[in-house]
Design brief:
single chain, Cyclic Phosphodiesterase, Chain: A, five-stranded antiparallel beta sheet, alpha+beta, four-stranded antiparallel beta sheet
């Protein structure tokens, strides 16, 4: 099974991003746009995982404590950059404990054989992926006008373990477990 750990986003942010995608989609027909209902802030991607590890994963994630996480969804950008874009994203600025939570999840799963993250945690929501550069100049110009646009905010007090099933119409996600984010006593 293909697994990841993530925070959800509120419906108001999903609506704002759905409207944004509807505006930007005509600018770049070749992009593979993400369905807003599947958007999430990934804390750790586990990849293909033996189902026999599921209980151990849940147990490892249960004691995570950092307090509720505040999230602001603001601006657009590109990975690796706007000159050679492969992905367009919505920025996620989190309270300082967001980085702590991601690091704790990463550390909790290492004893189960999951490799530590090699890249710095960069919270974002993927909006689209690009296989070609057709239409990207227009899209980059349109996105540059929205670099500081505010899509909303949220306070999250839970994170989730998800299963991802890749299908022709896009990935389908199933929530397998819920974990509270609580203050340390």
């Amino acid at each position: 099974m293909r697994l990841f750990v993530a925070l959800d986003i509120p419906d108001a942010v999903r609506r704002a991003l759905r409207e944004l995608i509807a505006r930007l989609k005509p600018e770049c027909d070749d992009a593979r746009w993400v369905r807003p209902e599947g958007m999430h802030v990934t804390l750790k991607f586990l990849g293909e995982t033996d189902g026999a590890k599921l209980d151990s994963i849940k147990a490892a994630l249960s004691p995570e404590h950092s307090g509720p996480v505040d999230l602001d969804f603001r601006g657009l950008g590109f990975f690796p950059n706007e000159f050679h874009p492969r992905v367009i994203w919505c920025g996620v600025k989190g309270s300082s404990n967001l980085v702590t939570l991601a690091a704790s999840v990463d550390a909790a799963l290492q004893p189960l054989g999951f490799s530590p993250e090699s890249r710095e945690f960069s919270p974002h929501l993927t909006l689209a992926r690009f296989d070609s550069h057709k239409g990207l100049d227009t899209l980059v110009r349109a996105a540059n006008n929205l670099k500081s646009y505010d899509f909303g905010s949220a306070r999250q007090s839970e994170f989730y373990l998800y299963q991802s099933v890749l299908k022709r119409g896009g990935a389908e996600y199933t929530r397998l477990a819920t974990f509270p984010i609580v203050e340390k006593a």
